[in-house]
From TrEMBL:
Organism: Thermoanaerobacter mathranii subsp. mathranii (strain DSM 11426 / CCUG 53645 / CIP 108742 / A3)
Gene for this chain: psuG
Matching Pfam families: Indigoidine_A
Keywords: Glycosidase, Hydrolase, Lyase, Manganese, Metal-binding
Cofactors that this protein relies on: Mn(2+)
Active site annotation, chain numbering: 25, 159
Function recorded in the entry: Catalyzes the reversible cleavage of pseudouridine 5'-phosphate (PsiMP) to ribose 5-phosphate and uracil. Functions biologically in the cleavage direction, as part of a pseudouridine degradation pathway.
Designated name of the protein: Pseudouridine-5'-phosphate glycosidase
């Protein structure tokens, strides 16, 4: 195992026994949700994955060590400490060398999962091309990671705070398969529809696992994006959430919020503007992703046996 990594007992045992493991990110805990919803959600996600027959591995960097699987205390630390950085690919060298603690974004979580040979990773929504990127150049490192790192990512699409058509164009250019889980529509996080189509729909976890394995068997590097829409009963009204997003974007611009601060700022602002409705939706969609991710990990694990 890589010299920078510590595996939890649970994850270590699962790997020795050849059980399916599902990675979870920590930015959603430290920067994506408020306390105590963040810690409650983190624990719930782990339990959903266990209940469906896989082992969860929440990933974070604590005091310069990559932790694959967190203890209760470590989860609590990630959920409450104000000292935690937000690490994507470019941050990993400095954070590790300096012994800092950081939550891992989709990009950094993919890197760490890959180092530990974990093939399936569950998140809420990926980062993407930001609106106005033609001016700001703000394109999430998540997209390049999907282009390069061999981990399948289960998400509810990308948030409508982003430029979704350009996000899909980018993924196409870099050869990332985008697969709809039981849908032809690329979901927009809080809503099931975006008006944008995916190229392939899978009807179950077995089909999803086959596509993932086929990509890597072909020697094609990089991830596969499994887009799993928020359950109908928790989806928000499109006009309602679009208005909140517009207002949050306006506020961010007014306050000149930029770079890695923008995503956490918008999430928090949208939560306030919707009186917590967006947070509720966020929690439910990521729970649904954990359920689907566990099932895909189990099928993929069978294909590799
Ligand atoms: N989506 C969410 N909540 C989040 C994130 C995405 O619903 O907290 C996080 C993920 O960790 C993602 C990161 O990788 O935001 C993207 O940040 P940026 O736009 O700075 O690349
Ligand atoms: Mn960015």
């Amino acid at each position: 195992m890589n010299k920078f990594i510590n595996l939890s007992q649970e994850v270590k045992k699962a790997m020795e026994e050849g059980k399916p493991v599902v990675a979870l990110e920590s930015t959603i805990i430290s920067h994506g949700m408020p306390y105590p919803e963040n810690i409650e959600t983190a624990k719930t996600l782990e339990n959903i994955i266990r209940e469906h027959g896989a082992i969860p591995a929440t990933i974070a960097i604590i005091n310069g060590r990559i932790k694959i699987g967190l203890s209760k205390e470590e989860l609590e630390f990630m959920a409450t400490s104000k000292e935690i950085l937000k690490a994507s690919r470019r941050d990993l060298p400095a954070v590790l060398a300096k012994g800092f603690s950081a939550a891992t974004t989709v990009s950094a979580t993919m890197i760490c999962a890959n180092l530990a040979s974990i093939k399936v990773f569950v998140t809420g929504g990926i980062g993407g091309v930001h609106r106005g990127a033609e001016q700001t150049f703000d394109i999430s490192a998540d997209l390049q990671e999907l282009a390069n790192t061999d981990v399948a990512v289960v998400c509810a699409g990308a948030k409508a705070i982003l430029d979704l058509p350009r996000t899909l164009e980018y993924l196409e250019t870099f050869g990332v398969p985008v697969v709809g889980f039981k849908t032809w529509e690329f979901p927009a996080f809080y809503t099931r529809e975006s008006g944008l189509k995916v190229d392939y729909k899978v009807d179950d976890e077995i089909e999803a696992a086959k596509i993932i394995k086929t990509k890597w068997d072909l020697g094609l590097k990089g991830g596969v994006l499994i887009a799993n829409p928020i359950p109908e009963e928790y989806a928000l009204d499109k006009a309602y959430i679009d208005k909140a997003i517009e207002d949050a974007l306006y506020e961010a611009e007014k306050r000149n919020i930029k770079g890695k601060e923008i995503t956490p700022f918008l999430l928090d602002k949208i939560k306030d503007l919707t009186q917590g409705e967006s947070l509720k939706a966020n929690i439910e969609l990521v729970k649904n992703n954990a359920f689907v991710g566990a099932k895909i990990a189990i099928e993929l694990n069978k294909l590799y046996k």
